[in-house]
Design goal:
Elements (H helix, E strand, L loop, with lengths): L1 H16 L1 E6 L6 H6 L4 E8 L3 E2 L1 H12 L3 E6 L8 H12 L9 E5 L14 H17 L3 E5 L2 H8 L13 E4 L10 H4 L9 E10 L2 E8 L1
Length: about 220
């Protein structure tokens, strides 16, 4: 009985250390509502898939900070009509770097890009090199960088789940819509050399506080 009680307490402590948050692309005003609903961080879009910085994402970040939420941003790059360097320069011009703007990590969104002249190609090596250029440019502008990707997308873009594995020292944010805020599923879906993720996007588009968001778990 005593051992069972200790286990329950341990599980309660473990659960209490978990942090839930949201990510969104739509412009929104009421970030206090997220706070009241128990969400502690917000990841806003900083760069659009068609090759343009997102001013709405900047305003969302400011509102998230004002509401007392932890703020990160995600960067949906365009491979094709713009260089990695020019995209990062556009981002830094609006969002600043971590010395001038209080946000945490810039998450590079590695997934299929439907925008014209911006998609990943069938040249897996070129895709990996472009991602490296983008990461280098962000780091060169004093950014903390993470990767957003799934096993499926990584395999599609780089040729295999084990390919392009030299990013595994960066934090990983991965999607798996099992509605379960834990990392218990990750061993089955791991890729890219990562052994431990940082954030899980556990639920896709969900209406919270009157806007469509994705739900995330951080541990």
């Amino acid at each position: 009985m005593k051992m069972t009680s200790l286990l329950i307490v341990a599980l309660q402590i473990y659960t209490s250390l978990a942090v839930l948050g949201i990510d969104l692309s739509a412009k929104h005003d009421d970030f206090q509502c997220f706070k009241k609903n128990g969400y502690q961080f917000a990841i806003t879009r900083a760069y659009r898939s068609y090759g343009a910085v997102d001013p709405d994402g900047y305003q969302n970040l400011e509102k998230a900070k004002a509401a007392g939420l932890i703020g990160d941003v995600y960067f949906f790059p365009c491979k094709g009509k713009k260089t990695a360097k020019s995209q990062v320069q556009e981002f830094v011009q609006l969002f600043g770097n971590q010395q001038t703007q209080v946000y945490g990590t810039v998450w590079v969104d590695v997934e299929s890009n439907p925008s014209t002249d911006c998609g990943w190609t069938n040249d897996y090596g070129s895709n990996c090199n472009f991602l490296q250029e983008l990461v280098n440019e962000l780091k060169g502008n004093s950014q903390s960088v993470g990767i957003y990707a799934s096993q499926y997308m990584w395999t599609s873009i780089f040729g295999s789940a084990s390919a392009c594995s030299h990013f595994s020292s960066l934090p990983l944010w991965y999607p798996h819509y099992d509605q379960t805020p834990t990392f218990d599923d990750f061993p089955k879906y791991k890729f890219g050399g990562w052994t431990t993720p940082s954030i899980k996007q556990y639920s896709g588009t969900t209406s919270v506080c009157g806007v469509g968001v994705d739900l995330n778990y951080y541990k």
